[in-house]
């Protein structure tokens, strides 16, 4: 996906949010914004919004020297999600189509990241999550195609999005494992926003449920040309890829791999790309699917 | 009011909205945004958000050569508002405290500017406007103080905001004239966003109701140092000033003049400054009021 004009103010806004969370002084914050504006003057609109958003976080790190401003928040997200994890499992166990409900739980994990006030939240409202799960239909629902593709799949690459959210993913992955699928979970090698890293996967206690690998970078989404060989190997090997959240959709929507995207459309641009409305949730197969293997190269 | 970091993406967003409305090509739009980013690198945070937003429109005009991208929309706003004007008058006539209701109608004029989709609107939903008037209490209501101040006031300067909205203002001004007040209406000398100009005042048929003067510039809000002597004379002469909308609040909140601000808080920054929530509506007296005359100088 390419970057639109409307992504420019959003990139700046994301960086300002990070500055607020990090508690940087006003003076330092202004310096970060000024340097970011300078960098964005020559923004490459052919890159994905995710890739251009990386610029904001790179400038933030360079100017402030702060490597992981979301560290404490990620710990909190995981703890809150783990608190309600048994309840999430029960919801899945209470229905007939467990895999479908588990997928919806995973999408709910992406939704709550959006809905909560990250500075104030101290509890996750389980009842509201369940209510939303029941009341919000999927604007794109390719579950049947997913189920079909799953029949021929053994190796599944599960590309995670946020800390906290990965506990919700665990519910879905558990169901996949019950179906004898081999799930590999990918997390970021280094911190970027509140994206899940190895520490988060450990906190979420994936244990033997899924092998955890790192992407080899700290990009928003998946930057193929900057990914580790180990990650790319799993990407190619996977019969089926599950991709969570916007950043991964922005960077993987044109790869032609067998990907299913689970996310909430958190901006107009993504909603347009998916043909849905702002705030809609989707379980969407890749439109760029070529039918071939997940061949990727670093020059792609 | 000074500019905050969070105003920076908003300034860019406003310019992008103007680019969309003007129908500029993608290439030209990118050029505008790039030049704006360059200008904003050295943004003066001590200036008001309105003054810094001016930069976006200046760059837009310089790069595109388009002087009044909102021209057609302003005509449409006026026509739609004039269509329901008799109904607005009836609402005021139907209540006991006509002046208070008329003030609320004027505030509603500021609200509808925000609520409508400027590209799609073809009618104004009168019933919804009235429902909102009844259901939305003023988050700050200094009407009693206004009423008190009005007793000692003859000359009123009414600083307008948007085209269309000025038809709603007319309902309020009519009630003030009934109380034998002399109302002078100020509009912009040249186009800026959808702000009212002389052409709009003529379309709104103010006729003998109020004398119309121009600010001498095309700034968002009121830039004292850039205003005409004629405007400043009326500003000083006024016993009481009524100021509509955010831009005027941003630029006049520290002047110490006897001003009442009627507006909807359309962003978090303004809401904070007013001590209210986003989307709240207010009828607020100036906190900077010194009790002296409305003395201003161009060096202020």
Automatic annotation (TrEMBL), chains A, B:
Signal peptide: none
Domain Damage-control phosphatase ARMT1-like metal-binding: residue ranges: 5-281
Gene3D superfamilies: Uncharacterised protein PF01937, DUF89, domain 2, Uncharacterised protein PF01937, DUF89, domain 3
Record-linked InterPro entries: ARMT-1-like_metal-bd_sf (IPR036075), ARMT1-like_metal-bd (IPR002791), PH1575-like (IPR014444)
Pfam family, one: ARMT1-like_dom
Protein name: Damage-control phosphatase ARMT1-like metal-binding domain-containing protein
